[in-house]
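Lecture notes, part 5. Sequence design as translation. It can be helpful to think of inverse folding as translation between two languages: the language of shapes and the language of residues. The source text, in structure tokens, appears below.
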């Protein structure tokens, strides 16, 4: 983790495609589910740490956020928690309020109408990610 935090900027072009490729594939069937979940959680944390090196206006940030939103559908709670933490860090840096609201609306839709408990729980973790929701959205709502 420390290596990505310190060297991620320099090796972004090499590391990002490897991480994205792993997340795009289904979990290896030869691994037990709990091991697969632990690996996916670590890869999500690596992706979030690596993405912190991107400028807020870099189009790759949105790509990473979109990928993390898809990974939130993974039923493993540990993976969902990791995604929530990464999303919070990335969403705080987005300057376009309409883009932030788009992501929040998507997560609220999943939270309220998700087809499974795992989908709804993943959306809850995504919304709760590092106080993003409370600092950027709740204050603007007419409850």
């Amino acid at each position: 983790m420390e290596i990505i935090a310190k060297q991620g900027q320099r090796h972004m072009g090499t590391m990002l495609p490897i991480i994205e490729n792993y997340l795009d594939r289904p979990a290896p069937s030869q691994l037990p589910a709990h091991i697969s979940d632990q690996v996916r959680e670590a890869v999500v944390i690596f992706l979030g740490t690596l993405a912190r090196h991107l400028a807020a206006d870099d189009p790759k940030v949105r790509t990473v956020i979109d990928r993390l939103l898809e990974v939130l559908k993974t039923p493993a709670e540990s993976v969902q928690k990791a995604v929530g933490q990464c999303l919070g860090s990335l969403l705080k840096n987005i300057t376009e309020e309409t883009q932030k609201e788009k992501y929040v609306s998507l997560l609220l839709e999943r939270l309220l109408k998700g087809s499974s408990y795992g989908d709804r729980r993943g959306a809850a973790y995504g919304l709760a990610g590092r106080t993003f929701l409370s600092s950027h959205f709740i204050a603007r709502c007419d409850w």
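The translated text above is only one of many valid answers, since several sequences can fold into similar shapes. The chain has eight helices and no strands.
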